[in-house]
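Chapter review: from sequence to fold.
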Amino acid sequence: MKRLLRMILSRTSVIMVLLLLQIIFFFWLINYLSQYAYIQTINYALSVIIVIYLIYKEENPIYKLTWIVPILIFPLFGGIFYLFYRQQNFSAKVLKRFKLIDQERKSWIKDVPESSHDKIPRYLLRQRWPHYTHTKTTFLPLGEVMFEVMLNDLKNAKRYIFLEFFIINPGWMWDQILTVLKEKVKEGVEVILIYDDFGSANLPYRYPHTLKSYGIKAIPFNPMRLHLNFAMNYRDHRKIVVIDGIIGYTGGINIGDEYINRISPFGHWLDAGIRLQGDAVWTLTLSFLENVRFQTGKEIDYQYYRANAKESSEGLIIPFSDAPLDRELVSKDSYLSLIQEAKHSIDITTPYLIIDNELSTALKLAAKSGIKVRIIIPYVPDKRLVFMVTETYVPELVEAGVEIYRYTPGFIHSKMMIVDQMHAMIGTCNLDFRSLYLHFEQSVYLYQSPTIHEMKTFFDQTIEQSEMIKTYSSHNIFYRMTQILLRGFASLM
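The C-alpha coordinate string follows.
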Protein backbone atom coordinates (compact mmCIF):
# COMPACT_ATOMS: atom_id res chain seq x y z
CA MET A 1 0.00 0.00 0.00
CA LYS A 2 2.82 2.40 0.90
CA ARG A 3 4.58 1.59 -2.37
CA LEU A 4 1.40 2.29 -4.36
CA LEU A 5 0.83 5.56 -2.51
CA ARG A 6 4.45 6.59 -3.08
CA MET A 7 4.07 5.84 -6.79
CA ILE A 8 0.85 7.87 -7.05
CA LEU A 9 2.38 10.86 -5.29
CA SER A 10 5.74 10.65 -7.07
CA ARG A 11 7.07 13.56 -9.08
CA THR A 12 6.72 11.56 -12.31
CA SER A 13 3.04 10.76 -11.64
CA VAL A 14 2.24 14.38 -10.86
CA ILE A 15 3.95 15.62 -14.03
CA MET A 16 2.26 12.93 -16.15
CA VAL A 17 -1.16 13.91 -14.78
CA LEU A 18 -0.50 17.58 -15.54
CA LEU A 19 0.66 16.71 -19.07
CA LEU A 20 -2.47 14.62 -19.58
CA LEU A 21 -4.57 17.60 -18.48
CA GLN A 22 -2.72 19.73 -21.04
CA ILE A 23 -3.60 17.23 -23.78
CA ILE A 24 -7.25 17.12 -22.70
CA PHE A 25 -7.39 20.93 -22.69
CA PHE A 26 -5.76 21.03 -26.13
CA PHE A 27 -8.37 18.70 -27.64
CA TRP A 28 -11.19 20.56 -25.89
CA LEU A 29 -9.95 23.89 -27.26
CA ILE A 30 -9.65 22.58 -30.82
CA ASN A 31 -13.09 21.00 -30.58
CA TYR A 32 -14.55 24.28 -29.26
CA LEU A 33 -12.95 26.38 -31.99
CA SER A 34 -14.06 23.91 -34.66
CA GLN A 35 -17.65 25.10 -34.34
CA TYR A 36 -16.48 27.73 -36.78
CA ALA A 37 -16.44 26.28 -40.29
CA TYR A 38 -13.28 28.10 -41.40
CA ILE A 39 -11.37 26.66 -38.40
CA GLN A 40 -12.41 23.15 -39.41
CA THR A 41 -11.31 23.81 -42.99
CA ILE A 42 -7.91 25.10 -41.84
CA ASN A 43 -7.39 22.09 -39.56
CA TYR A 44 -8.31 19.58 -42.29
CA ALA A 45 -6.07 21.32 -44.81
CA LEU A 46 -3.24 21.42 -42.28
CA SER A 47 -3.58 17.67 -41.66
CA VAL A 48 -3.40 16.93 -45.41
CA ILE A 49 -0.30 19.11 -45.81
CA ILE A 50 1.43 17.43 -42.85
CA VAL A 51 0.65 13.93 -44.18
CA ILE A 52 2.17 14.89 -47.54
CA TYR A 53 5.18 16.37 -45.72
CA LEU A 54 5.64 13.17 -43.69
CA ILE A 55 5.47 10.99 -46.80
CA TYR A 56 8.34 12.90 -48.40
CA LYS A 57 10.32 13.47 -45.20
CA GLU A 58 13.52 11.46 -44.78
CA GLU A 59 12.64 9.46 -41.68
CA ASN A 60 12.05 5.89 -40.60
CA PRO A 61 8.76 4.61 -42.14
CA ILE A 62 7.58 3.35 -38.73
CA TYR A 63 7.77 6.89 -37.34
CA LYS A 64 5.88 8.20 -40.33
CA LEU A 65 3.08 5.67 -39.87
CA THR A 66 2.89 6.42 -36.14
CA TRP A 67 1.84 9.95 -37.08
CA ILE A 68 0.11 9.47 -40.44
CA VAL A 69 -2.47 6.93 -39.22
CA PRO A 70 -3.73 9.01 -36.23
CA ILE A 71 -3.77 12.17 -38.37
CA LEU A 72 -5.90 10.46 -41.02
CA ILE A 73 -8.23 9.01 -38.38
CA PHE A 74 -8.54 12.33 -36.53
CA PRO A 75 -7.83 15.00 -39.19
CA LEU A 76 -9.53 17.68 -37.11
CA PHE A 77 -6.95 17.37 -34.32
CA GLY A 78 -4.05 15.37 -35.76
CA GLY A 79 -2.28 17.99 -37.86
CA ILE A 80 -2.22 20.75 -35.29
CA PHE A 81 -1.27 18.27 -32.54
CA TYR A 82 1.71 17.20 -34.68
CA LEU A 83 2.82 20.81 -34.99
CA PHE A 84 2.34 21.42 -31.29
CA TYR A 85 3.97 18.23 -30.02
CA ARG A 86 6.29 16.59 -32.57
CA GLN A 87 7.84 19.82 -33.79
CA GLN A 88 8.50 21.12 -30.28
CA ASN A 89 12.04 19.98 -29.77
CA PHE A 90 15.33 21.27 -28.48
CA SER A 91 15.80 24.79 -29.76
CA ALA A 92 18.14 25.56 -32.64
CA LYS A 93 20.45 27.21 -30.13
CA VAL A 94 20.65 24.03 -28.00
CA LEU A 95 21.20 21.83 -31.05
CA LYS A 96 23.97 24.13 -32.25
CA ARG A 97 25.59 23.93 -28.82
CA PHE A 98 25.47 20.13 -28.93
CA LYS A 99 27.04 20.11 -32.39
CA LEU A 100 29.89 22.36 -31.27
CA ILE A 101 30.51 20.23 -28.18
CA ASP A 102 30.53 17.07 -30.29
CA GLN A 103 32.96 18.64 -32.74
CA GLU A 104 35.29 19.47 -29.87
CA ARG A 105 35.08 15.89 -28.63
CA LYS A 106 36.01 14.70 -32.13
CA SER A 107 38.97 17.09 -32.21
CA TRP A 108 40.54 15.10 -29.35
CA ILE A 109 40.55 11.97 -31.51
CA LYS A 110 43.58 12.58 -33.69
CA ASP A 111 46.10 10.63 -35.72
CA VAL A 112 44.43 7.25 -35.29
CA PRO A 113 45.29 4.90 -38.19
CA GLU A 114 42.34 3.30 -39.93
CA SER A 115 41.95 -0.37 -39.05
CA SER A 116 42.29 -2.84 -41.89
CA HIS A 117 40.72 -5.62 -39.83
CA ASP A 118 37.04 -5.03 -40.34
CA LYS A 119 34.48 -2.60 -41.74
CA ILE A 120 32.90 -1.88 -38.34
CA PRO A 121 36.08 -0.33 -36.85
CA ARG A 122 36.42 1.71 -40.05
CA TYR A 123 32.83 2.94 -39.78
CA LEU A 124 33.21 3.85 -36.09
CA LEU A 125 36.50 5.64 -36.72
CA ARG A 126 34.84 7.80 -39.35
CA GLN A 127 32.37 8.79 -36.62
CA ARG A 128 35.48 9.64 -34.56
CA TRP A 129 35.30 6.62 -32.28
CA PRO A 130 38.83 5.15 -32.45
CA HIS A 131 40.00 1.61 -31.74
CA TYR A 132 42.38 0.77 -28.91
CA THR A 133 44.81 -2.11 -28.46
CA HIS A 134 46.15 -1.33 -24.97
CA THR A 135 43.08 -1.93 -22.84
CA LYS A 136 42.37 -4.87 -20.57
CA THR A 137 38.68 -5.87 -20.59
CA THR A 138 36.81 -7.92 -18.00
CA PHE A 139 33.34 -9.30 -18.65
CA LEU A 140 31.02 -8.98 -15.63
CA PRO A 141 28.14 -11.48 -15.95
CA LEU A 142 25.97 -10.30 -13.04
CA GLY A 143 24.98 -7.00 -11.50
CA GLU A 144 26.19 -8.12 -8.08
CA VAL A 145 29.58 -9.07 -9.56
CA MET A 146 29.96 -5.70 -11.26
CA PHE A 147 28.85 -3.86 -8.12
CA GLU A 148 31.42 -5.61 -5.92
CA VAL A 149 34.32 -4.93 -8.30
CA MET A 150 33.19 -1.37 -9.02
CA LEU A 151 32.78 -0.49 -5.35
CA ASN A 152 36.34 -1.62 -4.67
CA ASP A 153 37.63 0.52 -7.55
CA LEU A 154 35.68 3.52 -6.25
CA LYS A 155 37.34 3.12 -2.86
CA ASN A 156 40.76 3.30 -4.54
CA ALA A 157 40.05 6.48 -6.55
CA LYS A 158 42.76 9.16 -6.24
CA ARG A 159 41.78 12.08 -8.50
CA TYR A 160 38.21 11.92 -9.77
CA ILE A 161 35.09 9.77 -10.10
CA PHE A 162 32.55 10.18 -12.90
CA LEU A 163 29.19 8.42 -12.64
CA GLU A 164 26.40 8.51 -15.23
CA PHE A 165 23.25 6.42 -14.86
CA PHE A 166 19.74 6.30 -16.28
CA ILE A 167 18.26 5.10 -12.98
CA ILE A 168 19.31 5.78 -9.43
CA ASN A 169 16.82 4.31 -6.99
CA PRO A 170 17.20 4.92 -3.24
CA GLY A 171 18.12 1.69 -1.48
CA TRP A 172 20.95 -0.43 -0.17
CA MET A 173 23.04 -0.32 -3.35
CA TRP A 174 22.94 3.47 -3.61
CA ASP A 175 23.62 3.83 0.13
CA GLN A 176 26.84 1.79 -0.25
CA ILE A 177 28.00 3.86 -3.22
CA LEU A 178 27.05 7.18 -1.60
CA THR A 179 28.99 6.31 1.56
CA VAL A 180 32.12 5.72 -0.52
CA LEU A 181 31.58 8.92 -2.53
CA LYS A 182 31.29 11.00 0.64
CA GLU A 183 34.55 9.52 1.94
CA LYS A 184 36.35 10.18 -1.35
CA VAL A 185 35.18 13.81 -1.40
CA LYS A 186 36.71 14.28 2.06
CA GLU A 187 39.97 12.92 0.62
CA GLY A 188 39.93 15.58 -2.10
CA VAL A 189 38.60 13.39 -4.95
CA GLU A 190 36.36 15.22 -7.44
CA VAL A 191 32.99 13.50 -7.87
CA ILE A 192 30.55 14.33 -10.68
CA LEU A 193 27.25 12.50 -11.10
CA ILE A 194 24.84 12.64 -14.05
CA TYR A 195 21.47 10.95 -13.72
CA ASP A 196 18.44 10.98 -15.97
CA ASP A 197 15.69 13.04 -14.40
CA PHE A 198 12.91 10.76 -15.66
CA GLY A 199 14.64 7.45 -15.00
CA SER A 200 15.65 8.58 -11.51
CA ALA A 201 12.29 10.09 -10.65
CA ASN A 202 12.25 8.26 -7.29
CA LEU A 203 14.95 10.61 -6.03
CA PRO A 204 13.79 13.62 -4.01
CA TYR A 205 13.02 16.74 -6.04
CA ARG A 206 15.90 18.84 -4.68
CA TYR A 207 18.35 15.96 -4.51
CA PRO A 208 21.15 17.79 -6.40
CA HIS A 209 21.24 20.30 -3.52
CA THR A 210 21.51 17.44 -1.02
CA LEU A 211 24.41 15.92 -2.95
CA LYS A 212 26.06 19.34 -3.29
CA SER A 213 26.07 19.58 0.50
CA TYR A 214 28.21 16.40 0.49
CA GLY A 215 30.60 17.92 -2.06
CA ILE A 216 29.20 15.92 -5.00
CA LYS A 217 28.34 17.76 -8.20
CA ALA A 218 25.02 16.30 -9.39
CA ILE A 219 23.51 17.03 -12.82
CA PRO A 220 19.95 15.87 -13.66
CA PHE A 221 19.81 15.16 -17.39
CA ASN A 222 17.02 16.85 -19.38
CA PRO A 223 14.88 17.77 -16.32
CA MET A 224 11.17 17.04 -16.63
CA ARG A 225 9.00 20.08 -17.15
CA LEU A 226 5.33 20.84 -16.91
CA HIS A 227 4.83 21.66 -20.58
CA LEU A 228 4.30 19.20 -23.41
CA ASN A 229 7.47 18.89 -25.46
CA PHE A 230 8.85 16.12 -27.66
CA ALA A 231 12.33 16.88 -26.30
CA MET A 232 11.24 15.13 -23.08
CA ASN A 233 11.50 11.87 -25.04
CA TYR A 234 15.26 12.25 -25.27
CA ARG A 235 16.58 10.45 -22.20
CA ASP A 236 20.10 9.64 -21.00
CA HIS A 237 20.13 5.84 -20.98
CA ARG A 238 23.92 5.61 -20.61
CA LYS A 239 25.67 3.88 -17.73
CA ILE A 240 29.23 5.12 -17.44
CA VAL A 241 31.70 4.95 -14.57
CA VAL A 242 35.18 6.48 -14.94
CA ILE A 243 37.79 6.36 -12.17
CA ASP A 244 40.92 8.52 -12.56
CA GLY A 245 40.77 8.08 -16.34
CA ILE A 246 42.29 4.62 -15.89
CA ILE A 247 39.30 2.38 -15.13
CA GLY A 248 35.88 2.51 -16.76
CA TYR A 249 32.61 0.59 -16.72
CA THR A 250 29.50 0.33 -18.84
CA GLY A 251 26.69 -2.19 -19.31
CA GLY A 252 23.06 -2.67 -18.48
CA ILE A 253 23.32 -2.21 -14.72
CA ASN A 254 21.69 0.85 -13.14
CA ILE A 255 21.81 1.74 -9.45
CA GLY A 256 18.94 -0.06 -7.77
CA ASP A 257 18.60 -3.07 -5.49
CA GLU A 258 16.89 -5.19 -8.15
CA TYR A 259 20.00 -4.96 -10.38
CA ILE A 260 22.06 -6.82 -7.77
CA ASN A 261 19.21 -9.17 -6.73
CA ARG A 262 18.77 -7.81 -3.21
CA ILE A 263 15.11 -7.52 -4.16
CA SER A 264 13.38 -9.63 -6.82
CA PRO A 265 10.24 -7.96 -8.18
CA PHE A 266 10.68 -9.77 -11.52
CA GLY A 267 12.40 -12.98 -10.47
CA HIS A 268 16.16 -13.28 -10.92
CA TRP A 269 17.58 -10.17 -12.60
CA LEU A 270 20.29 -11.17 -15.08
CA ASP A 271 22.43 -8.28 -16.25
CA ALA A 272 25.92 -7.88 -17.66
CA GLY A 273 28.61 -5.22 -17.87
CA ILE A 274 32.21 -4.71 -18.87
CA ARG A 275 35.21 -3.23 -17.07
CA LEU A 276 37.89 -1.41 -19.07
CA GLN A 277 41.38 -0.67 -17.83
CA GLY A 278 43.71 1.19 -20.15
CA ASP A 279 43.70 3.79 -22.90
CA ALA A 280 40.15 3.08 -24.15
CA VAL A 281 38.84 4.67 -20.95
CA TRP A 282 39.68 8.02 -22.56
CA THR A 283 36.68 7.61 -24.87
CA LEU A 284 34.37 7.01 -21.88
CA THR A 285 35.83 10.11 -20.25
CA LEU A 286 35.15 12.22 -23.35
CA SER A 287 31.59 10.89 -23.64
CA PHE A 288 30.91 11.76 -20.01
CA LEU A 289 32.43 15.24 -20.20
CA GLU A 290 30.50 15.91 -23.41
CA ASN A 291 27.23 15.33 -21.54
CA VAL A 292 28.39 17.50 -18.63
CA ARG A 293 29.04 20.36 -21.02
CA PHE A 294 25.76 19.78 -22.86
CA GLN A 295 23.75 20.00 -19.64
CA THR A 296 25.66 22.79 -17.89
CA GLY A 297 26.94 24.87 -20.82
CA LYS A 298 30.27 25.30 -18.99
CA GLU A 299 33.70 24.96 -20.56
CA ILE A 300 35.84 22.02 -19.44
CA ASP A 301 39.57 21.44 -19.65
CA TYR A 302 39.53 17.96 -21.16
CA GLN A 303 43.28 17.62 -20.93
CA TYR A 304 43.11 17.86 -17.12
CA TYR A 305 41.19 14.55 -17.03
CA ARG A 306 43.42 12.67 -19.46
CA ALA A 307 45.47 9.83 -18.03
CA ASN A 308 48.36 7.87 -19.47
CA ALA A 309 46.85 4.42 -19.14
CA LYS A 310 48.04 1.46 -21.19
CA GLU A 311 47.54 -2.23 -20.50
CA SER A 312 48.65 -5.26 -22.48
CA SER A 313 45.71 -6.83 -24.29
CA GLU A 314 44.59 -8.69 -27.38
CA GLY A 315 42.15 -7.59 -30.06
CA LEU A 316 40.48 -4.23 -30.71
CA ILE A 317 38.34 -2.32 -28.21
CA ILE A 318 36.08 0.55 -29.34
CA PRO A 319 33.88 2.31 -26.79
CA PHE A 320 31.35 4.58 -28.53
CA SER A 321 28.36 6.69 -27.68
CA ASP A 322 25.19 7.42 -29.60
CA ALA A 323 23.03 10.55 -29.38
CA PRO A 324 19.64 11.28 -30.97
CA LEU A 325 20.49 14.91 -31.78
CA ASP A 326 22.50 14.15 -34.90
CA ARG A 327 21.42 12.21 -37.97
CA GLU A 328 23.78 9.30 -37.36
CA LEU A 329 22.22 6.11 -35.92
CA VAL A 330 25.52 4.70 -34.69
CA SER A 331 24.07 1.94 -32.49
CA LYS A 332 21.58 0.71 -35.06
CA ASP A 333 24.09 0.83 -37.92
CA SER A 334 26.63 -1.08 -35.81
CA TYR A 335 24.05 -3.77 -35.04
CA LEU A 336 23.18 -4.03 -38.74
CA SER A 337 26.85 -4.28 -39.70
CA LEU A 338 27.40 -7.03 -37.13
CA ILE A 339 24.45 -9.02 -38.49
CA GLN A 340 25.75 -8.61 -42.05
CA GLU A 341 29.23 -9.74 -40.97
CA ALA A 342 27.92 -13.04 -39.60
CA LYS A 343 28.94 -16.26 -41.28
CA HIS A 344 28.05 -18.87 -38.66
CA SER A 345 26.26 -17.51 -35.59
CA ILE A 346 24.53 -14.49 -34.05
CA ASP A 347 23.77 -14.55 -30.30
CA ILE A 348 21.70 -11.75 -28.77
CA THR A 349 20.39 -10.90 -25.32
CA THR A 350 17.92 -8.05 -24.97
CA PRO A 351 15.17 -7.17 -22.48
CA TYR A 352 12.99 -5.70 -25.25
CA LEU A 353 12.63 -6.77 -28.88
CA ILE A 354 10.86 -3.96 -30.70
CA ILE A 355 12.73 -3.46 -33.95
CA ASP A 356 12.22 -1.68 -37.25
CA ASN A 357 11.89 -3.35 -40.64
CA GLU A 358 15.60 -3.10 -41.44
CA LEU A 359 16.77 -4.97 -38.35
CA SER A 360 13.94 -7.49 -38.60
CA THR A 361 14.71 -8.18 -42.26
CA ALA A 362 18.45 -8.52 -41.54
CA LEU A 363 17.85 -11.06 -38.75
CA LYS A 364 15.38 -13.07 -40.81
CA LEU A 365 17.66 -13.05 -43.86
CA ALA A 366 20.57 -14.25 -41.73
CA ALA A 367 18.50 -17.15 -40.36
CA LYS A 368 17.24 -18.07 -43.84
CA SER A 369 20.86 -18.06 -45.05
CA GLY A 370 21.77 -20.85 -42.62
CA ILE A 371 23.28 -18.66 -39.90
CA LYS A 372 22.34 -19.78 -36.39
CA VAL A 373 20.50 -16.81 -34.87
CA ARG A 374 19.58 -17.05 -31.19
CA ILE A 375 17.89 -14.35 -29.11
CA ILE A 376 17.18 -14.46 -25.37
CA ILE A 377 14.35 -12.32 -23.98
CA PRO A 378 12.82 -12.24 -20.47
CA TYR A 379 10.32 -14.73 -19.12
CA VAL A 380 9.09 -12.26 -16.49
CA PRO A 381 8.65 -8.79 -18.04
CA ASP A 382 9.32 -5.59 -16.11
CA LYS A 383 6.95 -3.57 -18.34
CA ARG A 384 3.90 -5.57 -19.34
CA LEU A 385 2.74 -3.32 -22.22
CA VAL A 386 6.22 -3.21 -23.74
CA PHE A 387 6.49 -7.01 -23.50
CA MET A 388 3.12 -7.35 -25.27
CA VAL A 389 4.70 -5.55 -28.24
CA THR A 390 7.82 -7.74 -28.05
CA GLU A 391 5.52 -10.78 -28.32
CA THR A 392 4.21 -9.55 -31.68
CA TYR A 393 7.69 -9.77 -33.25
CA VAL A 394 8.32 -13.34 -32.11
CA PRO A 395 6.15 -15.36 -34.56
CA GLU A 396 7.57 -13.78 -37.72
CA LEU A 397 11.16 -14.22 -36.50
CA VAL A 398 10.56 -17.84 -35.41
CA GLU A 399 8.91 -18.59 -38.76
CA ALA A 400 12.07 -17.32 -40.52
CA GLY A 401 14.24 -19.71 -38.47
CA VAL A 402 15.38 -17.42 -35.66
CA GLU A 403 15.59 -19.26 -32.33
CA ILE A 404 14.05 -17.22 -29.51
CA TYR A 405 14.41 -18.21 -25.86
CA ARG A 406 12.86 -16.88 -22.67
CA TYR A 407 15.04 -16.65 -19.56
CA THR A 408 12.88 -18.72 -17.21
CA PRO A 409 14.35 -17.63 -13.83
CA GLY A 410 13.11 -14.08 -14.39
CA PHE A 411 14.21 -10.94 -16.22
CA ILE A 412 17.24 -10.61 -18.50
CA HIS A 413 18.44 -7.02 -18.86
CA SER A 414 21.84 -7.50 -20.50
CA LYS A 415 22.35 -6.01 -23.95
CA MET A 416 24.81 -8.09 -25.98
CA MET A 417 25.41 -9.27 -29.51
CA ILE A 418 28.06 -11.88 -30.30
CA VAL A 419 28.88 -12.78 -33.91
CA ASP A 420 30.99 -15.81 -34.91
CA GLN A 421 32.84 -15.53 -31.56
CA MET A 422 34.96 -12.83 -33.28
CA HIS A 423 32.84 -9.69 -32.92
CA ALA A 424 30.77 -8.51 -29.99
CA MET A 425 28.90 -5.49 -28.66
CA ILE A 426 27.92 -4.89 -25.07
CA GLY A 427 26.55 -1.80 -23.39
CA THR A 428 23.34 0.06 -22.67
CA CYS A 429 21.51 -0.10 -26.02
CA ASN A 430 18.36 -2.25 -26.17
CA LEU A 431 16.93 -3.61 -29.39
CA ASP A 432 14.00 -1.21 -29.29
CA PHE A 433 13.05 2.10 -30.87
CA ARG A 434 13.75 4.21 -27.81
CA SER A 435 17.35 3.04 -27.52
CA LEU A 436 18.04 3.10 -31.24
CA TYR A 437 16.39 6.44 -32.02
CA LEU A 438 15.61 8.49 -28.90
CA HIS A 439 18.13 7.72 -26.16
CA PHE A 440 21.70 8.71 -25.41
CA GLU A 441 23.49 5.34 -25.30
CA GLN A 442 26.93 3.86 -24.61
CA SER A 443 28.38 0.66 -26.06
CA VAL A 444 31.68 -1.18 -26.46
CA TYR A 445 32.60 -3.04 -29.64
CA LEU A 446 35.16 -5.86 -29.33
CA TYR A 447 37.02 -7.63 -32.12
CA GLN A 448 39.05 -10.82 -31.61
CA SER A 449 39.24 -10.20 -27.87
CA PRO A 450 39.43 -13.06 -25.32
CA THR A 451 36.55 -11.34 -23.50
CA ILE A 452 34.26 -12.40 -26.35
CA HIS A 453 34.76 -16.05 -25.33
CA GLU A 454 33.67 -15.16 -21.77
CA MET A 455 30.56 -13.50 -23.20
CA LYS A 456 29.87 -16.57 -25.33
CA THR A 457 30.18 -18.86 -22.31
CA PHE A 458 27.74 -16.62 -20.42
CA PHE A 459 25.31 -16.78 -23.33
CA ASP A 460 25.47 -20.58 -23.59
CA GLN A 461 24.93 -20.93 -19.83
CA THR A 462 21.94 -18.60 -20.05
CA ILE A 463 20.48 -20.65 -22.91
CA GLU A 464 20.56 -23.69 -20.62
CA GLN A 465 18.34 -21.79 -18.16
CA SER A 466 15.94 -20.66 -20.87
CA GLU A 467 13.10 -22.26 -22.80
CA MET A 468 12.90 -22.10 -26.57
CA ILE A 469 9.71 -20.69 -28.08
CA LYS A 470 8.50 -23.22 -30.65
CA THR A 471 4.86 -22.29 -31.03
CA TYR A 472 3.58 -19.08 -29.57
CA SER A 473 0.53 -19.55 -27.37
CA SER A 474 -2.57 -17.82 -28.69
CA HIS A 475 -4.22 -15.11 -26.64
CA ASN A 476 -7.84 -14.04 -26.55
CA ILE A 477 -9.10 -11.55 -29.09
CA PHE A 478 -8.99 -8.58 -26.67
CA TYR A 479 -5.33 -9.26 -25.86
CA ARG A 480 -4.46 -9.50 -29.56
CA MET A 481 -6.35 -6.32 -30.40
CA THR A 482 -4.45 -4.51 -27.65
CA GLN A 483 -1.19 -5.83 -29.10
CA ILE A 484 -2.10 -4.56 -32.56
CA LEU A 485 -2.90 -1.14 -31.17
CA LEU A 486 0.29 -1.00 -29.11
CA ARG A 487 2.46 -2.11 -32.05
CA GLY A 488 1.10 0.85 -33.99
CA PHE A 489 2.81 3.05 -31.41
CA ALA A 490 5.90 0.85 -31.04
CA SER A 491 8.21 3.66 -32.15
CA LEU A 492 7.21 5.70 -29.09
CA MET A 493 7.50 2.87 -26.51
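Two observations follow directly from the output. The two ends are 28 Å apart (CA to CA). Residues 11-33 form the longest helix (23 residues).
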